[in-house]
Description:
Mean pLDDT: 90
Number of helices: 10
Order of helices and strands: EEEEEHEEHEHEHEEHEHHHHH
Strand content: 5-15%
Largest sheet: 8 strands, mixed
Oligomer: single chain
Shape: globular
Number of strands: 12
Structural class: alpha/beta
Amino acid sequence: PPQTPKIPKKTIPFNPKKIQFNPNSNVPNYPTYHTISTTIIMKIAILGLGEAGSHFANDLSKKGVQIIGFDPNLKKNLDSSVVLAKSNPAAAEKADIILSVNLSTVSETVAREVAPILNPKQIYVEMNTISPQAKQLIFNILEKTGVQYVDLAIMAPVPPKGILTPFWVSGNGAKAFYEKLAHLNLNIKVLSDQVGEASKLKLLRSIVYKGVAAVVCEAVEAGKAFGLEPYIREQIKSILGQEDALIDRFIEGSVTHAERRMHEMEAVVSMLKSVDIQPFMSQAAHHNLHKLLKSV
């Protein structure tokens, strides 16, 4: 179980002159001592306040966590308690935990930017969907700082659950990360101390999820083109189950999150190539997402 942080206490000094005796009792009436507790507030830096980062910032601030955030192109509405820093290092400098949740294309750059101010008491959480090799590269960049490192995989869409979205974590800081946040009752699963394990499991699953979504999108598009959409939907339901709503979720989710999922499939392709697998289907899923992105 997580250790409860020690809270400094202040007490009113003992003054023997204030002891009063009750004439009806042999027991003196000692003065009451009031304990005053100093609350320790956790500080979390969030580097990147886009769709996911803004949800995490708002939800954590409502749970009593002090949030310091930075985003060079801030567009989302934030809780009034969220403090905005002027740079990534300024946000991360005094934080207990740093969440890197910006863009996969800048994750390495951000790590290099904040590395000079990190220390062994902090936990750096790489949340971007990148390949296990990329997570290892970022760990290598930060290792000399002594910071505790977490490879975190976000295992479901962030809306609607926000900070309660399932998180799978690995790396040398995974256990400490879980323990520090245990009192917030988040959905965190600790896998191991191996960097890359969380991202590997997420991307293996993505081959299935995004691959099936690509097939559904193409099949429905073809059905519409031939005037046979009801027929093709019946064929899909014979495999996936008798729900049109599920088909619609595959299509709508692919369109809505096309850009993010396209980068996710780029990470899948990179991972598969690293073990000499030709990623034909994953590349096709990537091409489908690219097409959807251009059509929006």
